[in-house]
Description:
Blueprint: E1 2-7, E2 10-13, E3 18-26, E4 32-39, E5 46-51, E6 58-60, E7 68-73, E8 78-83, E9 92-100, E10 108-109, E11 113-118
Parallel strand pairs: 2-11
Antiparallel strand pairs: 1-3, 3-8, 4-5, 4-9, 5-6, 7-8, 9-10, 9-11
Amino acid sequence: QVHLVESGGGLVQAGGSLRLSCAASGRTFSRYTMGWFRQAPGKEREFVASITWSGGSTYYAGSVKGRFTISRDNAKKTAYLQMNSLKPEDTAVYYCALRPSYSDNYDYWGQGTQVTVSS
């Protein structure tokens, strides 16, 4: 089993920054993609960003591109999401997820961390 634990959420004013972390433990995989998703109240969960095992490829939702940066430290089994220029519409519960190389899906999810951006 894989356990993912997010941290770093909180309350910030619009224009501010936060850095989320996602630490993985338990079963290990040779290679896996890490992703960040978010879910705002009353809305569907949406993709935010992802990063491949090597870190050579990153993908972002259009709404966060240029403001958020995803990164990872494989030695620490940790992924990060640096969020700058935050907007009230970024308010959501943020989840990290892991997709093993053999899977087309994100099979493992964290419990989420709340990010609230005040105007």
